[in-house]
UniProtKB/TrEMBL annotation:
One of its GO terms (molecular function) is sequence-specific DNA binding. This is AsnC family transcriptional regulator. It holds the Pfam family HTH_24. SUPFAM superfamilies: Dimeric alpha+beta barrel, Winged helix' DNA-binding domain. The lineage of its organism: Bacteria, Pseudomonadati, Pseudomonadota, Betaproteobacteria, Rhodocyclales. One of its GO terms (cellular component) is cytosol. Residues 3-64 form the HTH asnC-type domain.
Amino acid sequence: MQLDRYDRAILEVLQREGRISNQDLAERIGLSPSPCLRRVRALEESGLITGYRAVLDPKALGLTLMALIHISMDKHTPERFANFEARIEEIPNIIECLLITGQQADYQLKAVVEDMDAYQALLLNRITRIEGVSGVHSSFVMRRVVDRGVLPVG
């Protein structure tokens, strides 16, 4: 899909303000409401816009500890990776799972938990019990420096 300046403007605004009304969005980008709505629907149908969601404050939910966890696997087979990924998807405290290269690990997980006791339980009772996990290295986030949550579209 070729994006023009209006499409890019729509994407910029919607990433930051997903609940903006079509009327306000149209005014902001300099289009009338009907063509603006058609463009938004086209961006959704093309798959560029994959959804809308509320952004929650983890601390307000009592999730005060964030960990980055590097996982090494014993075998590099599609079956081993598929099993690991399926098991990780079942754990709600894992908010991101990336298959990575360039490290001694195969995966990087981002987890949020209440405290160190909850992290220990997550690690020992769930993650290390997944078949094929041969190594774990954890780092704890002290402070978020950049957390944009938006992609550059310009």
